[in-house]
Amino acid sequence: MPIDIQIAAADYLRFLPEIILTVFGIVIMMLEAVTPEGSKKSFLGGIAVLGIVLAFVANIGAFTDAGIAFQNMLIVDGYGTFFRGLVLVVGFLCVLASFNYLEREGAQSGEYYALILFSLVGQCILATSNDLIMVFIGLEISSIATYILAGYLRDDRRNNESALKYFLLGSFATAFLLYGIAWTYGLIGSTNLEEIRRVLSVGERPSVLAGLAAALMFVGFGFKVSVVPFQMWAPDVYQGAAAPVSAFMSAGPKAAAFAVFFRVFMTSFRPLNDRWIWLVWGCALATMIIGNFAALLQTNVKRLLGYSSIAHAGYVLVALTASSQIGVAAAMFYLASYALMNIGAFIVISHIAARNERYVKIEDLAGLGRREPATAALLAVFVFSLIGVPLTGGFFGKFYVFQAALSSHLVWLTVLGLVNSAIAAYYYLKIVVAIYMHEPSEAMTALPPPSLGLRVAIWASALGTLFLGIFPGTLLGFASYSAAAFR
Amino acid sequence: MNPLGAVLLIPLIGFFILLFLPRESKASFAVALIATLAAFFTSLTLIAPANAASGHFSSTVDRLWVDTPGLRIHLHLGVDGINLWLVILTTLLLPIAVWISQTMIKERHKNFYALLLLFEFGLIGVFSALDLFIFYVFWEVALVPMYLMVGSWGSARRGPAAVKFFVYTMLGSVLMLASIIYLYTEAGSFDYVDIMNAVNSGRVMFSPTQQMLLFLGFFAAFAVKVPIFPLHTWLPDTYTEAPVPATFLLAAVMSKMGAYGLLRYCLPLVPTGAHRCSDWIAALAITGIVYGALIALIQRNLKRLIAYSSISHLGFVVLGIFTFSQQGADGAVYQMIAHGISTGALFLLVGYLEERRGSLDIADFGGIATPAPALATVFLIALFASVGLPTLCNFIGEYLILQGAALTQFSWAAWAAIGVVLSAAYMLWMYQRTFLGKTEAATGFLDLTRRDWVPVLPLIALMIWLGSYTQSFMPPISSATSRLLEETTVNNQYRVQLTMPSAVPAAEVVDAH
Q1: Alpha helix (H) ranges present in B20-157?
Q2: Where are the alpha helices (DSSP H) in B436-473?
Q3: What CA–CA distance (Å, rounded) separates A467 from A397?
Q4: pLDDT digits (tens, 9 = 90+) for A235-287
Q5: A428 near B CB under 8 A
Q6: Is the pLDDT reported for residue B507 higher than 50?
Q7: What would the pLDDT profile of A388-433 be if each residue is shown by its tens digit?
Q8: Which residues of A touch B148 (CB under 8 A)?
Q9: Residue at A162 is within a domain
Q10: Which residues of A touch B174 (CB under 8 A)?
């Protein structure tokens, strides 16, 4: 069958953010090669920042001409634009926070920034994919770059462990996803998300097989977003990887994976709704409970945030269980506020950790309130937002998620979820207790003042968190507008 | 500008000014004092309109905060007789807290004042909110600065106490959040007035099960905050570990958040749920009254003793609310104000004792009435007020509550009266061991200085005023509570008559059957 491929200029415009990121990533690698050994390489990070900013502008430009691209492979809609913007913001903050970190660890190099850009390319594709093939490609681009980032400090044993664990389990999960895609194609004869939905809603195909395909894909996505019972890797990987990388992994790839998770289950497998909803219900509850209760016992802050990120994935799954437009909008808002507060917290930790990440225990944070009142106050903002105290983004996220759940009559899931969020307050408060209520620790005496990039990243995350908590209307409006596409 | 809006904003403005002052700035005290005093004097202008509004909301503020499809939140504030005095109580006690913090807080004054102002902002918001969402927001906003004050400036075991306080409150309040969201999905609004109208007109009806769930959700939050026995275990730890200005505010105003919530939200919004649970709650309230008093008897620490006495007194407030009678509700509101002033004064004076002796164990005191007669006298007045001596403030509230309880069910009043007797016992015994007797160690005990008198005088004056001339305070309270009770009754009857046409007033329905 001859294939007549026509690509319009508009297609390129809609794909422009990915193109920009790829070009910048390659340029950085080239420049790295020609930069003499021993000279300062932090300007490469500056180029990465520029690339991300341009991609962000292109993302907004692409939205002015929204539509499908490349023979229905990609779709630029409000939803895709939202998540593309989100992962770009995540990348921006992480690059800013990395300058100082890499300098300190003596690992400044171009590859790092190039890998972040490539990872972002994959996540942008995930956010806008409209076809299971693109989902797979996007996921692989994003994951492979992230595997390498997790093990970036190659002389560090914890980094190696983290990368290996992430890689082995991650490839296993991707295989599940691919198998699910193959099943779907065999059953439906198409990989287009809308087409799958159309065929499934007619109801001619045996729904058991379709359900099995959905379940296989659930495993794949569930791993990427660390849902119980596929959460084992998250704490180890977040603990082992370099702090800015953990910040990146817990926000960017996770948001993108959730984006495509929701898109696939809210379009393609929507007709099978009543089959998978109880599975998701159970996973959501288990994820919240296991994440929160395991976090109660942690003494390492990075590990604690790893478990907390599992718990937060559970809250987002509650929104999926609601299986409604409000649910989608709620998940979008939640992931945005979660990204900001979690990155902020990780960045502060990376600042305090000192060389070789010696100080990552909760008690090492002791006395931050006296040593650096501003940083401490901002960390407190992030922590209160993670708890879900009003006037922070985290509160509105949680509120909106549980409102969606209650509108879908999920009373028990809501009550149990909310009780969980109160229990979570206990371990988050350990951080606040340490920074304000204890005498300064050893880590504090040698703490250098935060560098400019770090300060910009922390302040930006904190102001963003507060903005989402005080003026949630703007983002909420856009989220509900975008979610309206999921009919 | 609307005076209520100004009262809410002034502390917030003060908070931001303090944030930008240098770390150990001398001006911070002045800023905090001016802001709190300005809020107080502005709040006095709320009295006249509230008196004139006869039970309706006055000085209302209504601004749209969030407006997206599926979520509309109004910044809706207003005062009637029930919350008017609570707002003024808050604005009155905050300058006092700032005043005593200057000497009782040893370090990082600026931060402490900033948190005090943020706390005032949250508290005024809680008391004046007429939108459930806003109410919840302020509820939590008031919690965070108090948590930080207890945790950062408290005594040795402050960390665990602060966390216990926070998590306990949070566990209750998330259940309230569930109820609020549920109300919103059913009634389509967060606005208190809108929901009341919808329930009144029968547009929104809740089945008994729904009401029960909603009620329990709200009740969880309020019961922890009051606290109602057996959810009180956070209170003694928190009150004891907190620095004195924070204990002062915790006991005097923060404990009113829960009682106010019960009266304002639980009764009229979910009356059937409230009625069904009233026997249980009254039993718990009476248990709290007696239990608190009994435990207070055996305390060796002054702060802990007053903390348990507080549990006992707050049991009266809850009992008054759940009698569903005019006297009970009036008494509950009056008792909230009276308890705020008398217990606040007691904690304040205990703070003076701690400043002078560096300890709070009753055993470390004794015989200090001789070197410090003024301190002993004002302590005795506050103590009598707390015990409920006629012509002092608590008497009016407790009397009305007991009368309301007696009218509803006589045995309630009889049991609760035990608490009154016990309170005289533990208070007088404590006074005797602390101030009377002879101890050599008491010589040279410093009496009240001129600076110490400043916060004491207005409190003593108010105890006498509240106790002897109720006419200045009661009329707006009565008109607001009678309106609230009427709505409760009407809503309850509507609930019972599920099949009735929506626009008919309740009285006619009752006649028709």
Answers
A1: 27-44, 47-52, 81-104, 109-128, 132-153
A2: 450-468
A3: 13
A4: 999 998 889 999 999 999 999 999 999 999 998 888 888 888 888 999 999 99
A5: no
A6: no
A7: 888 899 999 999 999 999 988 888 899 999 999 888 988 998 898 8
A8: 432, 436
A9: yes
A10: 418-419, 421-422
Helices (H), A268-324: 273-296, 301-322
A130: containing domain: 10-483
Q: Which of A390, A415, A476 sits opposite B137 (nearest CB)?
A: A390
Of A425, A480, A481, the CB nearest to B166: A425
In a domain, A4, yes or no: no
Q: What pLDDT shows up at residue B501?
A: 43
The nearest CA of chain B is from the CA of A72 a distance in Å of 30
Confidence of residue A33 (pLDDT cuts 50, 70, 90): confident
Smallest CA-to-CA distance from A320 within A223, A227, A238 is with A227
The complex scores an ipTM of 0.89
> CB distance A476–B162 less than 8 Å?
no
pLDDT of residue A185: 92
Sequence-ordered alpha helix ranges (H) in B436-499: 450-468, 474-496
Has residue A1 been placed in a domain? no
Chain A residues whose CB is inside 8 A of the B150 CB are none
SS3 sequence, B318-337?
HHHHCCCCHHHHHHHHHHHH
State percent of chain A over pLDDT 70. Answer: 99
- For A407, which residue in chain B has the nearest alpha carbon? B185
Best of A328, A396, A418, A423 to mutate (most B CBs within 10 Å, chain B): A418
How many C-beta atoms surround the C-beta of residue A474 within 10 A? 12
With CA atoms as reference, report the closest residue to A320 among A310, A329, A311.
A329
The type of residue at A147 is: Y
**CA nearest to A253, candidates A277, A221, A281, A229:** A221
pLDDT at B50 exceeding the cut of 90: no
**How far is A101 from A58, CA to CA, in rounded Å?**
29
| Number of domain units in chain A | 1
Residue A2 belongs to some domain of the structure: no
Is the CB of A437 inside 8 Å of chain B's CB atoms? yes
Give me the residue from B66, B151, B182 closest to A437, CB to CB. Answer: B151
Distances A405 to A211, A402, A418, B203, B215 between C-alpha atoms, Å: 23, 5, 11, 24, 20
Find the CB nearest A480 among B70, B137, B166: B70
By CB atoms closer than 10 A (0-12, 13-18, 19+), residue A275 is: middle
Cα A180 to Cα A66, A232, A386, A397, B94: the distances in Å are: 29, 22, 34, 31, 63
Beta-carbon contacts below 8 Å between A and B: 95
Which chain B residue shows the shortest CA-CA distance from A406? B182
Q: What angle do CA B487, B180, A285 make, to 5 degrees?
A: 150
Helix (H, G, I), strand (E, B) or coil at B360: coil
Q: Answer whether residue B148 shows pLDDT above 60.
A: yes
What is the pLDDT, as a whole number, of residue B128? 92
> Could you report how far apart the first and last alpha carbons of chain B are, in Å?
50
Average pLDDT value over all residues in chain B: 85
Burial class (CB in 10 A: 0-12, 13-18, 19+), A449: exposed
What token pair was written down for B24? 């150990």
Best of A391, A414, A433, A476 to disrupt the B interface by mutation (most B CBs within 10 Å)?
Answer: A433
CA distance from start to end of chain A: 34
Among B167, B174, B182, the residue with its CB nearest the CB of A406 is B182
Q: Which residues of A touch B181 (CB under 8 A)?
A: 399, 402-403, 406, 414
CB contact under 8 A, B174 and A418: yes
Residues 6+ apart with CB under 8 A from B489: B271, B324, B506
Longest alpha-carbon distance in chain B: 78
